[in-house]
Amino acid sequence: MTGVPAVAPKRPLILNNALFILTLIALAAACVSLVGIPFVLAALFYLLKSRTEALQLVASRDQANEQVHQASIQVQELEAIVEQVGAMDIIERQKFIEHLDSEISSRRGQVRHVEAEINAAQSQATQLRVQVLDLQASSEVNDYGLYNFENPAQDSVRLGEQLKEVQTRIKDAVRDKRAANGSQNFTLDGSIPRGRKMVGDMTKLLLRAFNAEAENCIKTVKAGRLTTAETRLDKSAEAVERLGKSMSITISREYLDLRKYELQLTHQHLAALRTAKEEERAERERQRDDERAQKEFEAAKAKQMKEVNHFQAALEQLRAAGDFEGAAAVEAQLVSAQELLDDIRERMTQTRAGHVYVISNVGAFGRGMVKIGMTRRMTPEDRVRELGDASVPFLFDQHAMIFSPDAFGLEAALHQHFADRRVNLVNLRREYFYATPAEVKHALGQMGDAHILEFHEEWTAPEFTQSKVLREEHGLPLVPEHASASLMESVGL
Fold this sequence. Notes:
single chain; four-stranded antiparallel beta sheet; two-stranded antiparallel ribbon; 6 strands
């Protein structure tokens, strides 16, 4: 497609200057006659108007020609672009488009990378500002002996957030001058400002010593020793009050309570850890007991199978020899052995079956405490003997050994019955209770357990009794039979 040049039309005759001038002269000559003047004026008016319109027409035509010319140039440029694109085949155009897409994607990736670097820099700047503020805050409280030491409970899932909160409140109290109080009217050489400065320095020194003692209490507190640590903290506060008496310096009740709360959270965590370890130890002990029981069952099963096979072989030999009387006797023994083997196999499949035992140790715990436990051992007395090892001074007395197909359930029912008499309310795997054997027997009777073959209410305690006799014979000082009498009285038993 090419541009079409515009054809210039002929110039209107009325625009011929020479002819126009002659016409004017002719009209001027025609004015000699008065009668022709009106006609001459009309002709002159018409002539001038026609010439003006002709000039306007020519100008419009020239402008249109210019627009056509510009359009023609644009058309030529578009044709050139079309020819250039048309010269590329489809594959080249596709590659060109892919190249452009790749370039765009690369530039976008660069933009994202730069944006990520900017965000990282902003985040780092924010962290640095926070660190600077933390350093400033730490510097303020470090003068008072308050440091970010490692607390055992800081990683606790249950207590970690509470510990952070109380530590923040402790620091705020120090920064806001609410941790300790001192006299505002103390004078030094007659100067109140100098006296206040001295009171402030002494307050900082005594508070520093108190915080060091509080930190030491937290680091050394042990599970079950909270009261001792709190007493130590109270005495430290009293020492501050005594040493700062002349300046009326004291540790505020608010601050003392905050440090005690921090100590209590630490103790709770340590107590929970100790309980967890005790539970793990008890669980391992239970697993070992189950493993021993399983081995005993396997050994008993193998022994009984050997006995059954022996009776079967003997029975076949007697029948072959025609000794029917002897065969009948052996057959009865075989039936009994087979029943015992079946019983062992059934007990091996019943994982809840076992023996619930009631034992006591008069020499170790007195007459008002029993242990109620459960074992799956083939010979449950072995478990009682193991409990009376070197961890206690005397062997346990066995009051009852009760077989139950649901030994776990029976044990749990007894534990629930004596729940308010538990000795250890923290670690429930410690199965000791403030109760007598007679009370346990009465509880079993109320439960209607039909598996109680025998129950001994009295204590034999042979080692303890013999030791008592030997003390008397050798003139050694006697010890109270009820080692926990005061503890029993405190719970009203």
